[in-house]
Sequence to fold (492 residues):
Amino acid sequence: MRHSQPPSELPQMARAVSLRRLLLHGERHERLSIAALWLLSLAASIGLGLASVIYKWSGLPVQLGGVELYITVYPPLLICLLWTLTCGWWWGAIPAYLATLTLALYGGMPLLWALMFSAANPLGFAVMALGYRAIAVSRHLISVGALLFYVQLSFVGAIFSSSGALVWCYTNRIDSTALLPIWQGWWLGGFLQSVFLCAPVMVLMWPHLERWQQQRPQLLVEASRDPRGSVLRLLGCVTIGVLIYGFVTLQLADNLLLVQAAGIPAALARALEVARDTTWAFYWVFALIVVFIAVFGYHMFVHWQTLTNQLLADLRHANQRLYMLAGTDSLTGLHNRRVADERIAAEWQRSLRLGSQAALVMIDIDHFKQINDRHGHPVGDEAIRVLAAAIRALSREIDCACRYGGEEFVVILPQADAEGAYLFAERLRTRVAAAPVAGEHGVFHFTVSVGIALFNPEDTGHEAWIERSDQALYRAKRDGRNRVVAQADVAA
Fold:
């Protein structure tokens, strides 16, 4: 049974649903549900797109505060934008493109122009997808920050999408003075639908979709590895969108002004000319300010990311250091019992999976209590350090030596047979017996007992492997200490 995971506290970069991974790793009900919903959305987008042309939902005049604005109602926008925001750009771009292509051909637009015209809405969706891929902002639009980010992206995306209005007017030979209602209706209608229709739906849908994506990360594409490039492209799109919006708005207003100024007095015409020149001068100053802010914002992001990466690197280093300290015995510098249990379990699983050999060696200092009683605990600690140094000197790089508790040690010997394990243990025993330890009453020597247990696939688990090595150690103690006993000898 799959357990649900709580939503992440920190927003993550947007990751699209991969069609290939969905087909390979998705469950049958997931594949069928998503395919049925997407095909239904495609059909609805095409049908509603044709309805917007048949019933002339384009450039509808609306009075707002004494100002006449134009709004285009285009229902496929809502459907396709939801797919883009929740599953990725391709999921929304394809039905949006096909819906627009269908209505363009229905309206008599030439094929080549229709193919270009149909890319307008997918272009706007690309800006929004890029924004969420570049900046880690939640798509659950309940916070002010998340909502403001969405509104800004919606505006820039609508401006890019409205480039289709220029193609539509050109192919239909619409006079430039009549372009303003169509162009304004396109971007304003798209912007208002994104904010007042799509955003509330996202508030309701996204928590459920986010939980599903967190439970099924294997269905998502890899996270972006080039955040700087994504941010640079996003800033470029925002800057270009704002500048295009200002330029087209002023140019269209300028065209209307030139037509209407034909029959007015010369003085008034001159005043209008000055106003036009002043407005264009302000626009170019504004354009320079927007470009400066974009460049400054990018450099600020690079600086922030550099500091963040350094902090993350320091944090990883600190965590590694803490993990190493948590798994290291402070007296000997060897691994402690926690690591020993983990490594023994891992080696048992590896040997079972690969059918390889391995040996577990358990070592104990003989008469350790007498050493402490006669020479004191500091000298007992020195004896432990001498044993640890001998183990470290004789161990291979692939071996794992651990202090198991008190005066007891374990050494994991991967890929070791009975002869190799016995040779290691015997060398250790003789090396320790020859190592002098300075005590209060002069130099003394101590010995160790060693038990060996080879990996046995018939064990019920790694605990049985530990138990067999402990039995071998107990036999070495019982038989007189200062000796090596293998588990096979115990069975005999």
Notes: Strands lie at 60-64, 67-71, 358-365, 400-405, 408-414, 437-439, 442-444, 448-454, 484-486. Confidence is low (pLDDT under 50) at residues 1-9. The two ends are 47 Å apart (CA to CA).
